[in-house]
Design goal:
This protein has a 6-stranded antiparallel beta sheet with strand order 2-3-1-12-11-14. Strands 4-5-9-10-15-16 form a 6-stranded antiparallel beta sheet, covered by helices on one side. It is globular and about 65 Å long. The chain is 39% helix and 15% strand. It has 3 domains: 3-191, Aminohydrolase, N-terminal nucleophile (Ntn) domain (Glutamine Phosphoribosylpyrophosphate, subunit 1, domain 1, 4-Layer Sandwich); 205-348 and 406-486, HUPs (Rossmann fold, 3-Layer(aba) Sandwich); 518-578, no CATH class. The chain is an alpha+beta fold.
């Protein structure tokens, strides 16, 4: 399925289902099918671009899937049939499961809702657990009142997405990854332990390299068998897309390649070289120059983006000329499998922290404190903001505030960083068609979590991994100034060292120091200038100006994020208030 929505079968159900049905169609889906169980009613719609089956029914029992599932080596109806046959809460057959999804299973008169292992595909719930959906806007539009969650709003603006299980509204959250929900007369939670054991191996480098390469090859063989060459694969000058291409080629797949950017960008230049030498056709698409837009057209483009991107896209993607939307549609046409290199940093030292025991607070200060409190109003409390993020990180890792082994701290990347950030993309793209994000898969996460930090730093392990799988692809130039088959250059090491050896407490202040050393600038650039934006919504920011000092703001990225939330508030003005 591209999307599903269910609500308690009570006096509110008819009105809620009518709102949700209209929202699902606004997302771009065909009219959804209806689902009825003893205590809940709902709707389920397939991918925007039909292809793989996402709904299966046997007698009264059924499974509805939003997202992508490969199960016991199967896809489509066969995978759903097996899942329905095998499912008992709590689900524990993760070794047989690939893909990121939210599943709704009705079996033996009982209704269950659960997600992939890391809960990366986003399932939303109302605070009273009377409504559940994979569409944020479908829930938002069927609740009578919505209050902005200040902590989540600041996280969204500073980090692109709310962290942990929060949404920007206090009344909407995501179930914890350990929760499988049984939806009956009452809500019963089945605890599904999903820990990530981290034990630094004593095996040699080459043996660990072979083991992870073998696991990756085994994993890629599954989608290769079902989609053959009907695969869309990105390419760039970096590590991750190159490794994806190497693994697809190793599995016998010849994907369609694409690269985003201008003709003089490193990504485009390097991708063009590789594609030419390897005999691939390459689509180059500059999303920012997709089309020229007139001011009077802009409100409708933003409205379409808002509906398609489920209300809270990252990185201000709502305010473009339609290039992002065009790219998503292109990747899904013909029932193709879109493959992503997202989260390839799982093989690297993502947080660029030194190899020594650290506290969770050090991660927060080094990586999540890149903001300037002066951009906010008096509603912002920096100490409380950082403390709440630290508590969320501790919960994700299942630890306390004490110092932990460095490798254990690195697991913050797959458990804390990836699910809210990449999960938002999976949940949106996963409505268009199947979407495979291999480096977020449980099968790889559990092994990559144990790569020693000394082998992660400077991309040494990932370079060797790529070279092991496809030495020819590894030997092409990269955006780092050297090929992945060569030793890491001094320039690359020096660039990494700037972050690696800077204390976390100092990194906390880097962003605000840079901001205050630069001359103030107007963040309203490109399509965010008044001639365009004033036609879209009330740019006096009546809601967000209570949290942000819009007169002082000079960062275009922050301005876009705040504009995204202001637009959300004004679109839902009949029910939204600031808490």
């Amino acid at each position: 399925m591209g999307v599903w929505y269910i609500c308690r079968n009570d006096a509110r159900a008819e009105g809620r289902l009518a709102e949700a049905r209209a929202q699902i169609v606004r997302h771009g889906h065909q009219a959804p099918r209806e689902i009825t169980t003893p205590h809940f009613r709902g709707l389920a719609a397939g991918y925007i671009y039909p292809g793989t089956t996402t709904f299966f029914q046997s007698g009264d029992d059924f499974v509805a899937l939003a997202g992508t599932l490969f199960y016991r080596g199967e896809a489509g109806e066969a995978a759903l049939r097996l899942l329905l046959q095998d499912y008992e809460p709590p689900f524990d057959r993760w070794a047989d499961t690939l893909g990121h999804f939210a599943a709704l299973i009705f079996k033996g008169g009982r209704l269950f809702a659960f997600t992939d292992w890391s809960a990366s595909f986003h399932l939303y719930q109302s605070d009273d657990r009377s409504v559940f959906s994979t569409s944020f806007l479908s829930i938002a539009r069927t609740l009578p009142a919505l209050t902005f969650n200040k902590q989540a709003v600041y996280e969204f603006v500073f980090h692109g997405t709310p962290l942990g299980n929060a949404s920007v509204f206090a009344e909407i959250s995501r179930p914890d990854r350990s929760e499988e929900l049984e939806l009956g007369a009452d809500i019963r939670v089945h605890t599904s332990p999903r820990a990530l054991p981290v034990v630094e191996p004593d095996e040699p480098f080459e043996r660990l390299l072979d083991r992870i390469a073998t696991s990756l090859r085994r994993m890629f063989a599954v989608p290769a068998r079902h989609f053959a060459n009907n695969v869309q694969c990105p390419l760039s000058g970096g590590f991750d897309s190159r490794l994806v291409l190497a693994l697809l080629a190793d599995a016998g797949v010849r994907p369609s390649l694409y690269v985003y950017g201008r003709s003089d960008d490193d990504d485009v230049r390097i991708s063009t070289l590789i594609a030419g030498k390897e005999g691939y056709d390459l689509q180059t698409f500059n999303k920012s120059a997709y089309r020229k837009v007139e001011p009077d057209e802009f409100p409708e483009i933003v409205r379409q983006n808002f509906e398609e991107m489920d209300g809270t896209p990252m990185n201000g993607g709502m305010f473009d000329a339609g290039g992002n939307s065009r790219a998503r549609h292109d990747r899904a046409k013909g029932g193709a499998l879109a493959v992503s290199g997202a989260a390839g940093e799982i093989f690297r030292n993502y947080f660029y922290l030194a190899d020594r025991p650290l506290s969770t607070r050090a991660v927060i200060e080094a990586f999540y404190a890149g903001f300037d409190p002066a951009d906010c109003t008096s509603a912002f409390n920096e100490g409380e903001f950082l403390e709440q993020m630290d508590r969320k990180l501790q919960h994700a890792l299942g630890v306390g505030p004490e110092r932990r082994k460095r490798l254990e701290i690195e697991s913050a990347y797959p458990l804390f960083r990836c699910p809210p950030a990449f999960g938002r993309e999976m949940s949106m793209v996963g409505r268009f068609g199947p979407y495979f994000v291999p480096f977020c898969e449980y099968a790889i996460t559990r092994e990559a979590a144990n790569i020693p930090v000394r082998w992660r730093t400077h991309g040494v392990f990932q370079s060797k991994l790529l070279t092991r799988i496809n030495p020819r692809l590894a030997a092409y130039p990269s955006a780092y100034g050297h090929s992945f088959a060569e030793p890491v250059s001094f320039a690359h090491r020096f660039s990494d060292a700037i972050s690696l050896y800077r204390p976390p407490w100092l990194r906390r202040y880097s962003y605000r120091m840079k901001r205050r050393l630069r001359a103030p600038a107007d963040p309203r650039v490109g399509l965010m200038v008044p001639a365009f934006l004033d036609k879209v919504f009330d740019t006096s920011f009546p809601v967000m100006r209570r949290l942000f000092d819009m007169r002082r703001l000079s960062d275009p990225g922050l301005f876009k994020a705040i504009a995204t939330l202001e637009y959300l508030a004004q679109r839902l003005s009949d029910r939204v208030k600031l808490g």
